[in-house]
Amino acid sequence: MKKNEDYTPDQVLDICREYMNDEHVEFVNKAYNFAAYVHKEQKRATGEPYIIHPTQVAQILASLHMDPYTVAAGYLHDVVEDTNVTLGDVEELFGNQVSTIVDGVTKISKYKYHSHQELLAENHRKMLLATAKDLRVIMVKLADRLHNMRTLKALRPDKQRRIANETLEIYAPLADRLGISKIKWELEDLSLHYINPQQYYRIVHLMNSKRDQREAYIAEAIDYIKTSVDALGIKYDIYGRPKHIYSIYKKMRDKHKQFSELYDLLAIRIVVDSVKDCYAVLGSIHSKWKPIPGRFKDYIAVPKANGYQSLHTTIIGPGGQPLEVQIRTFEMHEIAEYGVAAHWAYKEGNFEGVQLDENEQKIDVFREILELQENSDNAADFMKSVKGEIFNDRVYIFTPQGEVRELPKGSIPLDFAYQVHTEVGSHSVGAKVNGRMVPLNYQLKNGDIVEMLTNESSTPSRDWIQMVYTSRARNKIKRYFRIKDRQENIQIGHELLETELKNRSLSTKKYLDKKHVELATNIFNFTDSEELYNAVGYGELSPINVIHKLISEDPENKKKAEKKELEENVITETHENAPKPIPESTKLKKEQANANTSISVQGIDNLLIRLAKCCNPIPGDDIVGYITKGRGLTIHRADCPNVQSDEAKKRFIEVSWNNVTREKRYTAELDIYAFNRNGLLNELLQVINSNTNSLINVNGRLDKEKMAVIHVSVGVNNKEHLDQIISKLKNVPDVYEIKRTVE
Ligand code: MN
Question: By C-alpha distance, which of 740, 737, 709 is closest to 638?
């Protein structure tokens, strides 16, 4: 795909002519003429005639060999949104297929929604649902976004950043899930250029600085490898593999590597005719050069979910330098670059017979998207689940039968069980991972072999609702409890609300009287009070949430005199996992007795407990207790390097966090790694100050390569609070890594 140089409509037709018959080329031309006519008065932000944009979009689609309807839709994608033409006009002139695609990429009218956020989420949802019905919608949308990103320069900087962020959040992950790497890479590189220009240019500069040296090395390595592959007597291509700026940036940021430490900058690709040849090439390379352990991946035997296949290995190449080698067939290469678009490529003669449904079934991701839609209340919810579960990293696990399953990262065996079948989920009693029993809340890792243990008579447990990661599993569990026993739920809901009120030393008599319950029933939109209790009972509505509303909406409490008490009692956090406050009545006593009542030790009372100064554990961390002679018990983070020896482990005692009060402050020590620039420190401190009122200490240093390491000590409530601060700090431009420090 070329950049910075626009294609003419004639050139687009030339590309079409390479793979379409005359009638179809004429159809595309008709779409061009229509678009040129209706857009003729309009200009782009660059000042150029508007038609240049649809022409480039059509060109991108034609270069992917998309069918004539899709290329025509490329020409027509903006006519409904930006001109007087209606969808009905498009359907009448170009048929139902084209109008369906154009409808899918047309935004919803601005005037229906209150906030920009709401409108944005609605538009994303509309586009995704249209795509789930016809994948060609996303092909046009990606081509549209790609050309917009290529010409983003013309917009205001704030708009540039907003669009680039949206591209990284929605469109690049979508392209990735569909396997269209060619578009994904370009979108990512262009986005980084606008979101983080300093880093972008720094990496470009670093890549250029030793380019000659690297290219000479690759040429040498290719000669070396050729000598052994030639001996196989097969046909093959071999070449140095280009690296993408964003992927380098991500490695530096996520793995905290310096540029000089990234050895996969040196990479070679070998493309052959058959799978057999792939393994033959791998064998001949491994028999001559040592592979680096843990770096070999067989994506041919176990393809990625988006269909990607290849062999990856890293060998100690000539001169002792690590060298990454990818081996694949020509067919796999097509799919690696073009993903679903490769399956879809129009083939002259059989185009009319393409069965879209059959192809769509292969794309699991859109089945999942439809499922999320069924279970979301609104567009914002829906997009949150899509980002968390579909665009996030995935883990690949195996069934005992060797079948590969894909789940969002963070999933537990129960998520897997519910993915297999609702019945497997509901009857789960335990799970084995790699042959060993694990707790049901074990976090699945890549390559785990997962076996569910079930029992016909066993039923789901209520705490599973909080444990599972995927909304699919959560909804199935909720549904189970909703139906199971309504009366029981009403009873449990009643009890849960009573307990929560008692925990806050509030009168159950007062807040659960007819007047208050009616108030809550109305606020949460239930038909009657039983439905309210029922919802609390089966876990749809958190009791904290109800009590918050009861207190804040109580007419009496609105009086100024009680305002202070109100602030103390109201829990603003409505997240279901939020820690419950310690009951007021016991809180004072406990705090006087021991500063660390936030930790409980199994079976032991009155032990002197201290938090280790080396790793500073905070509520929510995995912790261990370490017995010191005469000095009681020290609490370390489970991963603290100071307590990893076998000797130390003998002195471990099992401990856990109690429910912790929100006021309690714990110190967390962080190292922030960033590329230094003017104003960096200032921005970091602003983020910290707006998220905690307790900044304890700051110091920093610079290394030779202008990399800054800034150490901060901050007061936090718990791990959730700390994670929030860390994720906001990571959004500051030029920050690429944040670590909790251990002494
Ligand atoms: Mn457009």
Answer: 740
